[in-house]
Amino acid sequence: MRRIVPGMTRGIVPSLMLALLAPVGASAQSVAEVVEGMYAAAERQAAPVQDYTLTQRVMGVETFNYFEKEIVDGRPVFRLKMSDGAGFSLSLAGEDVGLGDIFLYGPDLLEHARYEGAEQIGNFSVHVLAVDDAATIGIVPPGSADQATFTARSLRLFVDATMMITRRVVIEGDAATDAGSQALTIQMDMTSFLPIESLWVPFMTTLQVAGLTVEVTVAEVLINAGRPEA
To answer: Domains in the chain and their CATH numbers?
Structure first.
């Protein structure tokens, strides 16, 4: 079980009213297709997995997090059960959530996100979903961002068009400082995805906050190995 690792237009509509309405319908349909694709990808990854342990290296320090599968509203969501307390969270649903976090905030994306189109990140085509009011989906900033001093205003998700996994997250918001509120952008890039049994694991994650960059690498993934010894 041990693996060592070295994220349309169909035609011209003559009626002006229909032309104005068409993008709205296309956006809603595209958001649904992207989110449903993300659901399916998460289901496939989770199907044979009951638990996993993720070992990361952050700023030279090795940390671990152990997750177990739970079924939430019929969907697989992995919850943090053990940790050394120093891990780096990639989830937008909270530090105690691993694979399957899309099932927790996906319904809000369906309601509040809009489809911004397709873009390229390096060699990869991505769908871009945007939420103009991040408060409507209650996301949690990734990594170690201080939630007490940071208020998210907008969110953009960049979803791999083939794998239907998130490659980039951009959150814009305001941070409370001694000098008052200041605009702040958080960008998280997941790269070097490798298949570890059924899981797609980002070997490298880069977090950029206020001009500072933190790199997180995956050192080891244990799948269905059970709860680690304390």
So the answer is: 15-223 (2.50.20)
